[in-house]
Structures are given as structure tokens and as C-alpha cells.
Fold this sequence. Notes:
Elements: H1 22-35, H2 39-54, H3 58-61, E1 77-83, E2 93-97, H4 101-112, E3 117-122, E4 139-149, E5 152-169, E6 172-178, H5 189-207, H6 217-241, H7 253-263, H8 268-276, H9 280-321, H10 330-348, H11 354-365, H12 378-388, H13 393-409, E7 416-420, H14 427-438, E8 442-446, H15 454-457, H16 470-478, E9 484-488, H17 501-509, E10 517-518, E11 525-526, E12 532-537, H18 545-549, E13 551-555, H19 561-579, E14 587-589, H20 591-600, H21 608-629, H22 635-641, H23 643-651, E15 654-656, H24 661-665, E16 683-690, E17 693-706, E18 712-716, H25 721-741, H26 747-750, E19 751-756, H27 770-782, E20 790-792, E21 795-796, E22 802-803, H28 808-817, E23 822-826, H29 830-834, H30 838-841, E24 845-849, H31 852-860
Parallel strand pairs: 1-3, 7-12, 7-13, 8-9, 9-12, 14-15, 16-20, 18-19, 20-23, 23-24
Antiparallel strand pairs: 1-6, 2-5, 3-4, 4-5, 5-6, 10-11, 16-17, 17-19, 21-22
Helix pairs in contact: 5-6, 5-7, 5-9, 7-9, 8-9, 9-11, 10-11, 12-13, 12-14, 19-20, 19-21, 22-23, 25-27
Bound molecules: adenosine-5'-triphosphate.
Adenosine-5'-triphosphate is lined by residues 389-392, 423-429, 536, 567, 571, 606-608, 611.
Amino acid sequence: MLKPYTSHHMPLAIRVGSTPANRSLLLLKAWSQQTRWNRSSHDLVRRAFFSTLTNSKPTVSCSAIVSSKPCLDNCLTVIAVPFRDGPLIPGFYMPLCVKDPKVLAALQESKSGETPYAGAFLLKDDKDPSTSSSVIHQVGTLAQILSIQGEQVIVIGRERLQITEMVGKDPLTVKTHHLKDKPYDKDDEVIRSTYFEVISMLRDVVKTTSHWTEQDNICNSNYRKLAEFLLQKRRRKLTDSGAGIFEAVDFNYQKLADFGAGISDAKKHKIQEVLEELDVHKRLNLTLELVKKQVEMNKIQLFHASLFPVTHATATFKKRIEPIKEKIPKHVLKVIEEQFAKIDRIIRNYGSTDDIFTYVDWLTALPWGKCSDDNFDVLRAEKILDEDHYGLRDVKERILEFIAVGTLTGNPQGKIICLSGPPGVGKTSIARSVARALDRKFSRLAVGGLSDSSHIKGDRGVYIGATPGKMVQCLKEVGTENPLVLLDEIDKLGKKRSRDPEGALLELLDPQQNSHFLDYFLDVTIDLSKVLFVCTANVTDMIPGPLLDRMEVITLAGYTTDEKMHIARDYLVKIVSGKCGIKPEQVDVSDTALLSLIENYCREAGVRNLQKQIEKIFRKIALKLVRQRAPAKTDLESSAEGSMEQSTAVAEKFMINESNLADYVGKPVFRGEKIYEQTPVGVVMGLAWTSMGGSTLYIETTFVEEGEGKGCLHITGHLGSVMKESAEIAHTVARRIMFDKDPKNLFFANSKLHLHVPEGATPKDGPSAGCTMITSLLSLAMKKPVRKDLAMTGEVTLTGRILPIGGLKEKTMAARRSQVKEIIFPEANRIDFEHLEESFKEGLDVHFVDEYEQIFELAFGYEQ
Length: 864
Ligand SMILES: Nc1ncnc2c1ncn2[C@@H]1O[C@H](COP(=O)(O)OP(=O)(O)OP(=O)(O)O)[C@@H](O)[C@H]1O
């Protein structure tokens, strides 16, 4: 039986796809497998084809890899190798897998003899099992055998052959004669123009096969180079001759025709026609038809290839919405379906669908109707809040109340919680714990500095780079419709007149509006009423009024030293050691070290800086531990020092105490807040409250000059307008009090005075230093210092009444830090003080006053 030798038998199937270059590609692939492909072998292949393409006598000097130069006239009787997939075109390599041992032996014999040739003939009918020359085409190709390795045979097509007689059956052996092309006039314009048309079509073949994948690149680049070669040749001829296209150009027309046919993916019998055609012009025409068809086929393939991701993505979108179709609001579903129809239309018109894709991707990716189940178990919530945070009794209580309302109503929404307090007091982490307690997803949106409503509401219009707003992005990220969303730093909203983010936030937070929140990019309304919003702010004064109205403010004032000690010991040290991979038993941070850290390094209200300092300590310990483990010392060094030392070092426990703390965290950054041990005349300690927490501040007044009617007050210290007014009020009130007490005292009438609030680089404002200013002025007027270790705060009216102040807890803590023993607060703040935990009040002598007169008594009513 006649066994055809085709790609089918090859280790790499030639019939992988139908791109025009597949045939050539697979030839090259198989070739590369045979010859251990590398760059130089690739060049050889290319050169081999080029030489056959450009030399009119390929048999003599065609290929760098064909070592011998056999005489083709000796090859009249050859083994006939039947080909099934297509004829062997002269100039092309073909790897074969020959299974028949007799044929293989015959080929081996040819290869080792003087005439390493066989005949390659296309089978007329693949299925015909008979063994005779009648089943193969009579015109074939003289195939030079280049290599035989096992069953793998590589041949290259050389000349056209015609069978004249059958000589043997097993293996099939035939007598042939070599076919010569008919003579032609190479200057004939018609044949030349056909030739150039083939070149032009070959360029199109290269262009339209740009979708080849990485692995096809060897072949792709081979043919691109070939086409470039052809074009360059044409250009060079044009320039060299300067005589135009049709003159002095000596191309090898028949080889170009063969090349075009060889790379085309046409039916094998069509390629056989090219092989059999000896009229060169006719052959070029046949090739032209094949190459034209190839270009058309490539274009269709290109289109389908580009269509694939489009249809694939549309299918993904459809699949995505299928299970939630019922839950997607009707108006949104309508838009999605309109977009699908639009994509179909665009595909039919070969347009770009990128923008719509982005849009539909967003629309279909939102968690329509997908909610996590709320957990309203108050006991569990309490446990979680306690697990994550020390203290914060009031805050936790308020949150538990909020959850309790959720238990009863089945919905924790309603007022928006705003956690307000200085940095690092745990606002963000409390919000996280609430999400954990409720079993809701958590997402944080930083709105500080947000200056454009589009950050929240999205970009208008679907243009390149347009995106939805942060809220939509957050929903997509968390994948549920009811996450807990933390709007961080809501007091630091930026403002741009035209595109005010405040309005957008209002729309987001207002329960009346957020059930149909419109994102400009999505252009459909979405329901945000299930989202639980929690905001954070350092101070509530800066939150726009309409937003603040919708919030339930929970204040986190900051921590006392005692609370910080607990947080540090029971939370931060444990968290940080875990993060650094250090076991608790490897380190002992003593209470004195922690206390020193709190008092001398981290005095602010929160504990973030404290956490950073503890991290510093543990990072240093981690480095020491790793250094100890690493075999840093040479054998010589360690043997000299004794190996015992290293093992004891590994087991060493790091003891951090007050004395070695500086080795880990550097020198203390704080000196005492107290500038004066005993405040001099004209100086009084006040208490201030900033977004960073509470602090003490001194009011200093000094005499400048005296003269009748010269009484006035000069004010410095970077004071805001309210504080400046306070100083003026204080001057008037002090003058009246002095007059009441001693009408003959003309100090205020005749003295030019200067009032200053130190740390002039820090801006200060607010009315609560009023009473401190009056006291400072009176101290100067009476030349009597105020009582030692006394601090005060309170706004004063012109008639001397004392009005309440804000930030009582923070101010109390600041006073304690400065070792103040006595504090004067407005009577109206008594209730706030009573609500403070005992640890805050311990050891303090606090006075509550209504009238300045009472302060006067407390400050100056002592014997000097
Ligand atoms: N009471 C506490 N108990 C335990 N850890 C706390 C407590 N308060 C704060 N922390 C920890 O302090 C660190 C800082 O807290 P967080 O980031 O929540 O502060 P914040 O108030 O949100 O600050 P900012 O205003 O700068 O965003 C976190 O690691 C947090 O866990």
C-alpha cells in the first residue's frame, strides 16, 4: 500500500490552522525541531529560500545548508514519495515523517550516495490505497534529501519533474524527466505588471497576518523580511537605474510565482496547477489569484479575530447579569440591554466598541441586589469593640445603642455617625470594628482635600479615561450593596466654586436623596440607602452646616497617660510584635519605658505616634535578632570568640527600659510644656483646644510706656480675629475691674501695653482665652503674680460673665500633663467635667465660675 508522507505524520501537525503562512510556519517549526533552531539556522533557511528565489539556476549555488552540489541530470530515476497535504514547491523545505522502513532505507541509500534525491508527488486522492504511479500526479518536484534522523526526513524542492515510467512498486520508484519553463520575454510589460501585482499582494498578505501570535513570529518575521526584501529590491532598482519601474529590472518571475503559491493556503490542487504550469506568465497569473484569495481570507480571519474579544466580553457581561436579572432595577436593566444592542450594531458596522465596553463593564459589575446579612447581636458587637479598643466607654456605648436600634427596626441606617477627634484616637479603627460587628464589608473613601464633585459623582459622558465616582467604585470593590463606608476627613473638604463637592456629598449622605443617587458616568440612578455611612473629622466646626445637620457626632477626645499605658501594653505592643515576627517572650518593654515614651515622645491626644515609636523599637530588635542568626562572622572569628557566645545571644531577651530607650527611639522630642516654674507678673496659663487635642498656652502682658492718655493695647502671637476681639474685651473689662477696685489707679488709662501669646508661629483663635487675658492684664496692673500651678479657660462678656468653652476633656488632659493643680472652668461646663472618668479628675482642684469676680479671688486672693 502506498503511504503518503504528509504533515499528518509529522510530530508537529502542519494542519493546525488556516492562515496563509501556516504551511511555511510549520515547515519552519518542524525544521527548527529537527535542527535545534537558533538564529543562525533561521538565517540559513531564509537564505536558502532567497537564493532559490533570486537565482535562475538554483541547483548550483542555492543554499548554504546544501553542502554537496549534485548533478541533477543523474536523478532521472527516483523513489516517488507521495504527498497528501500539498505539492512540494521548488525552493521550500519540507519535513516528513516516514514510517515505511523500506522507503526510509531507500531514502537513506539515496542520501548517502551521489544523488541524494527523491521525487515528491501529490496524491490525487488521499483515500486511494493502491500502490501505483496512477494515484499520484504525474508532475512533481525533485526533492533534495537534506537530513534523515530516525523517521524524520527533511527535503527541499528543487526542480519540476514529470513521471515517464514506473520502475518499481515497493518502494514506488519512477523514471522522470526534468521540466523546463517555457522561454519568455522578461521585458514584456504585461508579465512585469503581473509580477508587480503579485509583489503588491504579497505585501498585503504580510499586512493582513499581523494577528499572528508570539510563537508564530519566527515565520511572520521571515515573511515580512521576504516582502521587505522584495520591496527593497524594487526600490533599489528604481533608484539605481533611475530609469523607472520597467527598465533594467531583472527579476526572477518564475521563482516569485512559486513563492506566492508556496505560502498560500489555497487548495492543494490549485497549488498543483501552479506547479504544473510551465508558461511563466500563466503561472504568475495563477499565483496572483491564489495570493488575492489569501489576502481576502486573511482579512476575514483578522475581522473574526478582532471580533472574538468583543463577543467574548459581551457574553461575559450577559453571564454576569443573568443570575441577578430580577434584582437589577428596571431602568438599569433597560440601559444595559440598550448597550448590548448598541454593541451588536457597532460590530455589524465594524466600529469600535471600547467605550461602551467600559460603560457596560461598570454597569454589570455593580452588586445589584447583593447584600451581606446584618448581624445585630449586641453582645457580640460589644465583645468585638472591646477586643479591638481599650477604653472609649462612651463611644462604644453610643455605637451599641445604634446597633440596638438596628436590632429593633431591622435597619441600622438613619443618622450618619460622625466620629470626631484628634488624629490617632481610633476613629478609623472603631469604624472598622463596627463593620466587623455588623458583618458588613468595609470601605474607606478619603474625602479630605476633595475639590471636585466629579470625584463623588463621576465624570459626565463616556469618553476615553472617564470613570464613575468614588462611591460607585467602592460598591464594585466591596461587591455588596450594604457596606459600611467610611468618609474620612469630611471636615477637610476642598472647595471649588463651580464644582462644589459639598453638594455631591449631601446627595450621597442624605437619606431623602441617596436612594436615587445619580452617578454621571453611569447615567442611571443607584440606591445607596442600604449603605451605612460613617464619617470622621478632627473638628466638627469645619463640617459644612447642612452636612453636620444630618450627622450624629460622637467625640473621641484623646487619651490620658493612664489610658495610653493600657493601649500601649495591651494592644500596640502585641500588635507590633506580631507584625515584626517577634515572640512576646523575646522582648520586655517595661512600664517605665512606656511611660517615658508617652510623656517624653508622644504627648499628642492620639496613639498613632506612640504606635510608631513602639514599631521603631521592635524593628531594631528584629534587626538584632536576624543579625544574630546570620552567620555574619567568619569561622576564624567565631572560633576565636567561642561559639557559646552566639547561642546565648540568640536566647537573649531584649529588655527595654527607661535607661536604654533612647538607643531605640532616639532622644526625647518634648521638653516640658511649662515655660515658667512660677509664672511672673503679667503671665497666666490658659488652656487651649486644637484639632490635635488640648494644650496649655501662656498669655503674657508687659508694660511698654506710660503717659497721660496713652493707655492702649498692642497684640501679637498670630491671633485670629475672634481672639483679637477677646483681647480688646479683656482690656476694657480689666480696666473697669481695676477702676472698681481702686479708682485712683490710672495704670490702664496711661499705659501702653503689649499682650502676646507665645509660639507665635502657631495660629490661634477662639474666645476661650478671654478670662486668662483679663487676669494677665490685672496681674500686671497690680504687680502681683497669679497663684502657682493655676490654669484657666473661659469666654468673658463685656460685663464680666463667663461663658462655656469646648474641649473640656482635652483641656483637662493638657492641664494634667503640665502638672497644673488647680483649674478654673466656666460653671456651664460643670456637667461636662462631672461626666469625665475618675482617672481624669484625680488630684485636680477644679473651680467653676459664673463671673470674673470669682476668678479674681482665686487668682489673686492669696497672701504673698
Ligand atoms: N482605644 C484604642 N485601643 C487600642 N488601639 C487603639 C485605640 N485607639 C487607637 N488605637 C490604635 O491607634 C492607631 C491609630 O488609630 P486610627 O487610625 O483609627 O486613628 P484615627 O483617629 O482614625 O486617626 P486620623 O484622624 O489620623 O485618621 C490604630 O492602630 C488603632 O488601632
